[in-house]
Amino acid sequence: MKPEMNHKLHFRTAVYQTPFHPRTSALNVLNEWHRWKDYTTADAYFDETLEYAAIRNACAVFDLTPMTKHRITGPDALAFLNRLVTRDVAKIKPGRVGYCVWCDDNGQVIDDGTIFHLRPGDYRLCSQERQLDWLARSARGFDVSIVEDTHDVAALAFQGPTTCAVLKKMGLAGVEKLTPFGIGFFPFAGGELMVSRTGFTGDLGYELWIEPGRALALWDALFAAGADHGIRPMGTHALEVSRIEAGFVQAGVDFLPADAAVRIDRTRSPFELDLGRLVDFTKPVFTGRRALLEEQRRGSRYRLVKLDVEGNKLARSSYIYDRARNVVGTVTSAVWSPAAKTNIALASLKMPWGRPGDELWAEIYYQRELQWAKVMARCRVIEGAFFDPPRRRATPPADF
Amino acid sequence: MTDVQPANKRRDDKVVIIGAGHNGLVCAAYLARAGREVVVLEAAAQPGGAAVTREFAPGFRVSACAHLLYLLDAQVSRDLALESHGLKMARSNLRTVALAADGGHIVHAGGKVESGPVSPADRAALADYHARLQRFARVMGKQHNRRPPRIGGGDRSDLLGAALLGLDIRLLGRDDMREFLRIAGINVYDVLEETFESPLLKGTLALDAVLGTNLGPRSNNSVLTLLHRMSGTAGGDYGAVALPAGGMGTVTAALAAAAQKSGATLRCSSPVARITLEGDRVSGVQLESGETIAAGTVVSNADPARTLLQLLGARHLETGFAERVRHIRSRGTAAKLHLALDGLPEFTGLDGALLGERLVIAPDPVYVEHAFDHSKYGTASPEPVLEIVMPSVHDRSFSPQGKHVLSAIVQYAPHDAGAGADARRGEFLERILGVLGKYSPGLRRQIVATELLLPADIEREFRITGGHWHHGELALDRFLMLRPVPGAAQYAMPLDGLYLCGAGCHPGGGVMGSAGGNAARAVLAAGSTA
Known about the structure:
The complex is a heterodimer.
Chain A: H1 3-6, H2 21-27, E1 32-36, E2 39-44, H3 48-57, E3 59-63, E4 68-73, H4 77-84, E5 96-103, E6 109-119, E7 122-127, H5 132-138, E8 145-148, E9 154-159, H6 163-169, E10 183-188, E11 191-196, E12 205-210, H7 215-226, E13 231-233, H8 236-246, H9 289-298, E14 302-309, E15 319-321, E16 327-337, E17 342-350, E18 360-368, E19 371-382
Parallel strand pairs in A: 3-13
Antiparallel strand pairs in A: 1-2, 3-9, 4-7, 4-8, 5-6, 6-7, 9-12, 10-11, 11-12, 14-17, 14-19, 15-16, 15-18, 16-17, 18-19
Helix pairs in contact in A: 3-8
Chain B: E1 15-18, H1 22-33, E2 38-41, E3 53-57, E4 60-63, H2 74-79, E5 89-91, E6 96-98, E7 106-109, E8 112-115, H3 120-143, H4 156-170, H5 174-183, H6 188-193, H7 199-210, H8 222-229, E9 243-244, H9 248-261, E10 265-267, E11 272-278, E12 281-287, E13 292-294, E14 297-300, H10 304-313, H11 319-326, E15 335-341, E16 358-361, H12 365-376, E17 385-389, E18 404-411, H13 421-439, H14 443-446, E19 447-453, H15 455-462, E20 498-500, H16 514-529
Parallel strand pairs in B: 1-2, 1-14, 2-10, 6-16, 14-20
Antiparallel strand pairs in B: 3-4, 5-9, 6-7, 7-8, 11-12, 12-13, 15-18, 15-19, 16-17, 17-18
């Protein structure tokens, strides 16, 4: 851990820089930054459209270090995780990663994240929000050690069709054998580089995990190897486009973390986020199980759907109406999808709305030279992903 | 999506009850009478839990924890025919003697001052105060045998329950209802200050409110605990106290006899190590001996924290619920003092005929509050408050001929003696004897044997978390539908087949039996719909 993060004068450092900052700051010609979990993070480096294009057509590097990370070990690590999250963690074998959500007792999603089964009994849990308090409370009665090591692990998301070729060129022998959600360890610069075939873009891609002291060496090696493969840095704006295209939900955007909600109807269950596949009732206990069983019996209140929105106006935060002009929900994320070449949105609709074929309308307000205009755009419910290229799953990935 | 697994079929009709305290026995009796196969498992060698009579010195016996009866549920007594099983009172409607070091004692009972330096205004005020509290206590008492309503569930019986509670309060009439709602959540000190003049009278009445709680007279909720204490009629009337013949052990012996006569099996010296599970429901218990007993229903008379966090384990509960249980406040502050005496003691200025009454050392409410102050920081009161009874005055079975037994509840004791417990016990005993010596200078010379049970000892001997006799603080945030914790106030726990039946549930502690009866009804209702 960096000394200033441990020190009693830590509060004098308002915003941290990641170990990659010397490189990211040099590349950030737009000088556009925001604060992500107390780290300064690039919104965009040179052109968000081109950065997005790198994700889909070459390869792009995103500084993932601020992602909240926990190391979970001890004899009860598996039992603890299984009681925490809704899916069966026993099915995540060593060397594998699993996407998961966890709920409060009411079966409402607190956060989502990924569980990395690094080595037998040794787990990393990444979360979107800070979770140490909930994890500590959930750990009572378990012989488990939970350490938040966000600051101790530098991480890059490396996404796009040429990523595998670049990693091979970097000397990571056998990296092409990693299947989606696989983890590999590679010697690097006298240490160990962990590579997982994971990401937030819905494309072929990897995430690279290394101790902070070797972060710059990793960055340099990656950019050297990627020079002929179109490597670019990417900021959060480009990532956001690919995230919505992939249909991934984001805490605080597509759902309100249950522990942050004041109004009881503002939260969502996994079923209501179209994540029912992550709920495994064969487990005898996990937090939220009883409420989710009850929800299955009674029916859910909401449904998260993917919408293809007519026209080219973004349906950002739009109300969704039925044919009779009743409000049946709201858009949570919206973007023009360059990959699907259509106007897309994620929306949370009241049941029973959101069935394929439902007639739905988005009320879109937009500005044209400072003057507001409104359009009602027809929406079509999409089943499956907006964009789901075969290269996302191909093993070994082709060299592009 | 994974399909929901159908709930495991009820393995059999059998019910295991953990703990043969009064509530466990009441629950067993009702379930057995309804035809259920019931086994009651008791860790101690005899049934009774914290309502037992046992020897503490050769030839000297005493009610080892609870020593007065006032809340025993009338319906339970009737249903289980406890009198026919040997329950009778040595004395009902005991007087209270507020001891004064100078001999100016106040003797009162049922709101009437019988003797002592009390002004006419205070006498009138006491009659008025007592009658009003009795009316309030009666409303509280009416809730004892009702399942607390679940709020927001929309269930018809829950709505009815909530409506009945509201109706009971409304039927007090306008003035009483306003007064009830005004004082129910506040502290007894303020109420006493606005009602009485005499410090001694106020001190004694303050003690009634805080006995067995981790509250001082100035703590909020101390009117609620007073009303709770007054909400039964087993002592003779609302707020009255009685001494059962043979001590509190007679009450539980009668309950054990009633349960066994109904067909329940009682197994003593059978401490339960853990509650066993099969999938997502209870499958029985495992004893410390290793023996397992299969049962589709497990009802625990142990306190909620012990049942859910120790016998079951937090890992088998959902996080939020386990956290709520962990936050149950169960810091016991009441110690129990037993003195074997070689004769009847003398208290300065006290008629010997009054030695069989309830003697109270709480000279004024500030004294009680100061005694409490120390408990906040985990230390013992330098000058504790005492509630004293001498059962041997009424009942020769307690001591050898010519000898006597003094039983006292002493507050406030250090709740966690930890290391150096014996030294702290000795130190606290000295303080208690010092206080007693101010009222009975010759007492110390009459002592043949002593036993002082600190909360930690009570926790150990009676297996009650924190040694708290309510199995968790009784307060507005832990009352009715909030007891023991919100979302689990109807005896069924959020684990299929597991129930609580003890004082940790509505309506709370004191030797009542209401929780046991209510839990039995919850088990039977679940069985009828399974």
